[in-house]
Amino acid sequence: MTEAMQTLATLITSRRTVRQTENTPIPLETIYKILEQAAYAPFHSEVEPWAVKIASTEQEKKFFFQCVFNSYERIGIFESHTDEKKEKVRESYREYFEGTPISMLIATDVFDHEKKDFEAVGATCAFIQNIQLLCWEQNIGAVWRTNPYIFDAEFTKEIGFRSNQKIVGSLHLGYPQQVPKAKERRALDQWVSSIQVGAK
Ligand SMILES: Cc1cc2nc3c(=O)[nH]c(=O)nc-3n(C[C@H](O)[C@H](O)[C@H](O)COP(=O)(O)O)c2cc1C
């Protein structure tokens, strides 16, 4: 095994989803460099299918939070909440969005074609994991989220994506405050087996 391969294996196995971060700013140049490198993920469309929207300034984070909150009102997340509970949730979301150094939304192209759409999501997930690993390499924590607002077409439009793009996830980045313990992975023999010749 080469040294580079060992480094990659360590990077993959040591990376953890980080949900609690410092609010120390992360230079945007660092993030742009990471995105440039992450874009070497494989893809099977004519051009890379992914697109990214970043919230790094106070104004951008406020707008992102407001769009999320509008979406949650629209799709009925707060239907069973009292006004008091809704205000509490609103405040905790506001704190989260405004306190996270960098948030980004990652979308993929939609082709309205089963195989092409499958490939586009696959490629975009590879791209997202590249971002997580490249962040981890620089001690930047990331959480990949699939909260309900990403499935809201009105939110997708409001945040600036085209109608032929859909959001695959959000990433929230910051220097780790707390790194959780690894979730144990299943033993190989529970999910790997040789192809059963003539199984049918
Ligand atoms: C497609 C996808 C969606 C995820 N969505 C969320 C989410 O909405 N909220 C969250 O806290 N973590 C989310 N995660 C992070 C997982 O919970 C995390 O990867 C998992 O617990 C394993 O932990 P590890 O990344 O530290 O190995 C998501 C991960 C993936 C791959």
UniProtKB/TrEMBL annotation:
It comes from the Bacteria. Pfam families: Nitroreductase. Residues 12-175 form the Nitroreductase domain. InterPro entries: NAD(P)H_nitroreductase (IPR052530), Nitroreductase (IPR029479), Nitroreductase-like (IPR000415), YdjA-like (IPR026021). GO terms for molecular function: oxidoreductase activity. This is Putative NAD(P)H nitroreductase YdjA. Belongs to the nitroreductase family. Its cofactor is FMN. Keywords: Flavoprotein, FMN, NAD, NADP, Oxidoreductase.
